[in-house]
Amino acid sequence: MTDLTHPIPAKQRVVLVDVARGLALLAMAIYHFAWDLEFFGYAPSGMTAFGGWKFFARSIAGSFLFLVGVSLVLGHGRAIRWRPFAIRLAMIVAAAAAITALTFYAMPDRYIFFGILHCIAVSSVLGLVFLRLPVVLTALTAAVILFAGPYIASPFFNQGALLWLGLSTQQILSNDFVPIFPWFGAVLLGIGAAKAGQQMGLFAWLASIYRGENRAGRPLAFAGRHSLAFYLLHQPVLISLVYLASLVFPAPAADPIASNIRSCNHTCVQNNPAEFCSRFCDCTINELVRADLIDAARKSQSSGEQDAGINEIVNTCTASAFEETRAE
Fold first, then answer.
1. Is 237's pLDDT higher than 90?
2. Who contacts 91 (Cβ-Cβ below 8 Å, separation ≥6)?
3. Residue 304: is its pLDDT beyond 60?
4. Closest by Cα among 274, 284, 285 to 325
5. What is the pLDDT of residues 115-131, one digit of tens each?
6. Contact criterion met (CB below 8 Å) for 131 and 73
7. pLDDT tens digits along 241-275
8. Element at 197 (helix H, strand E)
9. Closest C-alpha to 45, from 206, 195, 262
10. From the DSSP assignment, how many helices (H) and strands (E) are in the chain?
11. What is the DSSP string of 83-115?
């Protein structure tokens, strides 16, 4: 296995960059462990999709992609080394394809068709264009990619073959969706920062102040140098451990009302403010339970059929949540 990004030769490595990548991998393992606990019922349903956990996940993805940009500059800034670049790209593409196939088999309704590895593969190719461009132009392009998405999104991009761009107007159901807009912007920020850092002698200084002597940093640097292997192996190991634990210490039964509210919130916040969703879901689920329509609502959602009683509750709770949110 090799690096998730594009390293420079070992004798020229900036070990602190490996350590940074190792820290990102550790953070990712913590997040995935929390997701596994949620999946097996030890943590509240939807926990990792909200608040601090959601910010944590986005920070991890952003740091990985930023380091992709940094590593592109360190590995290919002077001249693109086509053979090692092609070999690493092929390995990442193969790993991404394997993840798509496995998740399609295991969870076809939320399979990963353009996750972090897919984004890294495409961004690595696109990033080559910016290795020779001025830092200012790279930074401006990064700003456009990061912030322009909502303004140029269009139903035209709702086509399946274009969803990976991140410019569609429909909700994307996937357990890991990392589209070009806005995430390629993080790669460009990494490229721009690394090029500016090279001009200021930053990496030579980083290499001089730390060469891997610290014992605490060695495991992180090792993981950072072999990040693709770590990425592919850590989640099967973690989920297997949680599964084995569940056989000995089963998770407590979940409160069905609370579980439905969390599930409602998980869907709602994709396109609405969290404050509105909290009020709307509390109102809707409790009213559906009170009217003994919760099972009918699930069937209606899956079949697409409309029920007058359900629609009335949804409309009433929508109006109520909207008014309460606006009044704050």
1. yes
2. 1, 2, 228
3. no
4. 274
5. 999 999 999 999 999 99
6. yes
7. 999 999 999 988 766 777 777 778 777 776 677 78
8. helix 180-199
9. 262
10. 14, 0
11. HHHHHHHHHHHHHHHHHHHHHHHH-TTS--SS-
